[in-house]
Design goal:
This protein is an alpha+beta fold and 250 residues long. The protein is built from 6 helices and 7 strands, in the order ααβαββαββααββ. The chain has helices at 2-44, 50-79, 90-105, 126-143, 174-179, 197-207, and strands at 86-88, 111-114, 122-124, 150-157, 160-167, 211-217, 221-229. The strands form 2 sheets. The protein has a 5-stranded mixed β-sheet, covered by helices on one side. A two-stranded antiparallel ribbon has the order 1-3. A hairpin with a 2-residue loop joins strand 4 and strand 5. Helix 1 (2-44) packs antiparallel against helix 2, helix 3 packs parallel to helix 4 (126-143) and helix 4 (126-143) runs antiparallel to helix 6 (197-207). The radius of gyration is 21 Å and the shape is elongated.
């Protein structure tokens, strides 16, 4: 049942992610359709301008490439299943997923990344941390409908590595903070929130032997702080769940 829950959560967060970036695909397709029609117009004109046709075709290819890049990121996000901890450079991981986060946030929410250059390694499953970042970004996006910065910073705290995600959105009342990690707790309209985002974040962090907390002020914003044990040799709780093979629908 736990493996099933885990899988359902993954599907839910993938659904949120897909919703968050569907409009990006729409924009790319819009660009492709526009420039393709320019190509045809130009080709059918009395004196076709070959250079202009090539330039327009180039735009079609660029938009198509952006689409395939995004598709690859989405597929790798969807495929993760078993938790595989290994030594991770959190700064490099965040840098690598910035583009995906920017797309998730949209243009009205600039992402500011402030890495601590002296960050020690942590032991965790990098895919899980990427998933965590996407879920926190989705919450931040929802909390800042009219825009604002999202700041991600890293740092050291004694023998732990700290990852913070700070938005300047609508914030959370104390009773919401208290329940925020509960599975299925949501204040969002039905269809917009599943209440699984922070529950999944909580699961990922505790599984890695860390802690997660929320600081929030209504009207000012929210900081989610994740603490992970420093050290490439740290042994996280091994609760990797491989769904048991079943003959049925699994
Ligand atoms: P969901 O986003 O689907 O509602 P979550 O578990 O991610 O589920 O979040 C639970 C609730 O916590 C949200 O409905 C929202 O009220 C609150 N919340 C989470 N993150 C933020 C944030 N960054 N700013 C304001 N409220 C938040």
């Amino acid at each position: 049942a736990e493996a099933q829950d885990h899988r359902n959560q993954r599907l839910e967060s993938l659904g949120q992610l897909a919703g968050g970036i569907a409009h990006d695909f729409n924009n790319m397709l819009g660009v492709i359709l526009n420039y393709a029609s320019f190509v045809i117009e130009e080709a059918e004109s009395a004196e076709p301008d070959v250079a202009a046709i090539a330039a327009d075709a180039e735009q079609v290819i660029r938009a198509g490439k952006r689409g395939t890049d995004l598709t690859h990121q989405l597929l790798s996000f969807a495929r993760r299943e078993v938790v595989r901890p290994r030594p991770v450079d959190l700064n490099a991981l965040i840098a690598g997923v910035q583009e995906l986060l920017r797309r998730t946030l949209g243009e009205h929410i600039p992402l500011l990344f402030r890495p601590d250059p002296d960050l020690p390694m942590v032991t965790c499953d990098p895919n899980q941390i990427e998933q965590l970042l996407v879920m926190l970004a989705l919450n931040a996006r929802d909390a800042m409908p009219s825009g604002g910065n999202l700041v991600i910073d890293t740092g050291c705290l004694d023998d732990r590595v700290r990852l913070r995600v700070t938005d300047c959105g609508r914030g959370m009342a104390p009773d919401v903070v208290e329940r925020a990690f509960e599975p299925f707790f949501t204040t969002k309209a039905s269809g917009e929130g599943t209440g699984l985002g922070l529950a999944t974040v909580y699961g990922i962090v505790t599984q890695a032997g860390g802690e997660v907390g929320i600081n929030s002020e209504v009207g000012l914003g929210t900081t989610v702080t994740v603490l992970l044990p420093a050290g490439a040799a740290a042994a996280p709780v091994d609760t990797a769940e491989r769904p048991a093979p079943t003959g049925g629908h699994g």
